[in-house]
Design a protein that fits this description.
Elements: E1 2-6, E2 24-31, E3 36-39, H1 61-78, E4 84-88, E5 105-109, H2 113-121, E6 126-127, H3 133-137, E7 146-152, H4 161-171, E8 172-183, H5 185-191, E9 203-204, H6 207-215, E10 219-227, E11 233-240, H7 248-259, H8 266-291, E12 296-299, H9 303-312, E13 322-323, E14 341-342, H10 344-349, E15 354-357, H11 363-369, H12 371-375, E16 379-381
Parallel strand pairs: 4-5, 4-7, 5-6, 7-8, 12-13, 12-15, 13-14, 15-16
Antiparallel strand pairs: 1-2, 2-3, 3-9, 8-11, 10-11
Bound molecules: thymidine-5'-diphosphate.
Amino acid sequence: MTFGQMPPANGFLEKKDFKNEYFYEMEVGFSEEISLFQLNNFTPPKNIHTEKYPFYTSSSKFMENHFRDYSNWMFKNYLKNNSKLIEIGSNDGTLLKNFQKTDIDFLGFEPSSKIAELANQQKIKTINQFFDKESALELTKYKKNTDVICAANVIAHIPDLKDLIHGIDNLLSSTGVFIFEEPYLGSMFSQVSYDQIYDEHIYLFSLSSIKKLFNLFDFDLIDALPQITHGGSIRYVIARKNKFPIKKNVSKLIDNEKEKNLDNLNSCLEFKKNCEGSKSKILNDLKKIKNDGKKICGYAATAKSSTILNYCKIGTDLIDYITDTTKEKIGKYSPGMHIPIVSVDRFKDNPPDVAYLFAWNHRKEIFKKEKNFSLNGGKWFSHVKLD
Ligand code: TYD
């Protein structure tokens, strides 16, 4: 299935750069052999995670709390005194900072230089590199004696999974575990949240795909825990083969995936129809609101919004501006459709009639923060159900 021409989802740009903007054909495919949903072509991560990469995990209070709970859970279940812990894609250290007052020997890998520097300034030890087989080999102190390697919303960004798994194999102790969380294919299909698909998300994982993939390298999927983050994610726990019993919920969730055809192409064909239906509904609804003389803005210039805006071809004819809290995005324009990004003051001082909530995954936090918008008659809009 193709979504048409797409710019890089985090490619917020200035007016002077419009004429040189890069586009690629965003097409997805499905490997029936390992049940893997993936982009057919992708931008090399080194062109994305530059010093300009504008995403900070700490921009959401909810995610800060989630990472505190995630750290506590790892601490309780898989770490012991003086354990070694490595986080892949540690961003500004939102997760690792939770280990600062413990005796855990922790280390983060973060390729975006500005973000890595910020983490290091806060004494969160961060290597400014991509995690791969080569960089893993340089960590002689951690070789085959790391208890936990963890990640969140990062593994789907890594094109060469074979190289990643070799890197992990070099570092994990015989009873070490690799724990990671990623948006869930099943949640994307059921909510028709196709905005999870963009250049950085090369894969959308399911238990079926993770189990088959890691089995190829003599690893087991030993546990899987559904999470509410990013509109529905799974926390996967991977260990060397036959080192841990496999928890019951793994087979339960895999059976559920089989029932829903998540392990084969049929669910993808259904999803394709649903995406096309969603596109015409969004456009009809927005045009109707606009024809009624109402003002529409976007709330949160997420990477996800880039897929919606470019696939549906929504520009300033429908949405006046997008408000966002990230200072690197404010004053720039959205990739591809060139909608101005403004600070949240504009939203508060001169509220629109309708706000398209692009950060629908943070809706609880945002509804609470912006309760005056609703109290004064403002309406939230989204392509996913907002309950
Ligand atoms: P997220 O869903 O993590 O985005 P992405 O699709 O890029 O992974 O949301 C992060 C973005 O949303 C970031 O640009 C900041 C913005 N945001 C706000 O503007 N206000 C808010 O209250 C929240 C929670 C996020």
